[in-house]
């Protein structure tokens, strides 16, 4: 009896270890890890970001697929789910691309991608290469590169599928910004001294 309980506990522990993983170096988009933001679909405050995983990062992709499979088995057993939502999408497949993204264009071409999130009361830890905490949002933005720890879980509500919960982030290096402005105000302007006649007290009134 005790031996059976031990095997059961070991099986549960192995499954949990499979569902939790740490990625290799991956690019990120839609970075929102310093302050929770309302999810328009769920109306809940969340931390979130999108992982852009190079297809050459085969070890990370294999771990993600294994975690998805384990989460599915834990939730649904051997039951067939015809329209199960897979969190891992192919950036070279037009059916997987979001919104107005163009096939073969940055940042999705040559990548798999998935979204990760955590609840507002469970903020992710964000550290640098020396494991020192990062609190300045400008030090980690969309287009940068990082490693991520996350865990897979299955859901069964309005739809059925697997998602990933965001645990922690280790920032590796800066990257080319994705979307938005790529320049800083101090790069675009110099100190300006107005000349006589330039000032107008009523300009904003």
Helix content: 10-25%
Note the run of SSEs as H and E.
HEEEHEEEEEH
Classify the oligomer.
Answer: single chain
Number of helices: 3
What is the CA-atom radius of gyration, in angstroms? 22 Å
What is the first-to-last residue Cα distance? Answer: 82 Å
From the spread of the alpha carbons, the general shape counts as globular
Largest sheet: 5 strands, mixed, barrel
Q: Going across the major beta sheet, what is the strand order?
A: 2-3-5-8-7
**Count the strands?**
8
Q: Average pLDDT value? A: 87
SS-based structural class? alpha+beta
Question: Which ranges are low-confidence, i.e. pLDDT below 50, for 5 or more consecutive residues?
Answer: none
Percent of residues in beta strands: 25-35%
Description of the structure:
By secondary structure, the protein is of the alpha+beta class. It is 20% helix and 32% strand. The chain is built from 3 helices and 8 strands, in the order αβββαβββββα. The chain has helices at 2-19, 58-76, 185-188; strands at residues 20-22, 26-38, 45-54, 89-90, 111-119, 125-127, 145-156, 160-173. Strands 2-3-5-8-7 form a 5-stranded mixed barrel. β7 (145-156) and β8 (160-173) form a beta hairpin. The longest helix has 19 residues, at 58-76. It is globular, with a radius of gyration of 22 Å. 21% of the residues are buried. The model has no long low-confidence stretch (mean pLDDT 87).
